[in-house]
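Throughout our pipeline, every protein is held as a single compact record rather than as scattered files. The record that follows is passed on verbatim for readers who wish to inspect the format:
___
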Amino acid sequence: MNCPACRSLLEERTVEDVKLDVCSQGCGGVWFDQFEFRKFDEPHEEAGTELLDLEAARTRPTGADDRFECPCCDDVVLRRHFFSTKRQVEVDECPSCAGVWLDVGELRDIRSLFPSEEARKQAASEYFDDVFGPDLQSMRAESEGKRNAATRFAHALRFFTPSYWIPGDQEWGAY
């Protein structure tokens, strides 16, 4: 398997019973297959401390426009996004196989962002509330008002409609 960043051959390395692909002869990046990254992303996890000290054997020119192809999937471009709401570290993730590519030093940066998964989720929830909270509250209020009006209307009509015409209350017919 070739490195998505510098095209060097990735070296398979076992870390805490997890087989990872490391670009030890090139840019120093690490490829995590689906769900493997979760075992290494928090500072209290002992797994992966040896990955924090990886160095690039050679540098490669980088730019914000670099797009990498997934080393596992054919013709799939990795999707670049921020790891958290702090918007400090960008990771590359495959939309097909859910693998994650980290450039050299990004694992160390990710581990320094939040002390735990719960803290990261709490920060994401607070960010979501800040961005969408007022709009969601007005939508909930509007929806609640419409539901109350529909309920009043349905209760008013129930005296005019015999129960055998109410869908689901009869044993015959198309309802």
Q: What stands out?
A: The first strand starts at residue 11 and ends at 15.
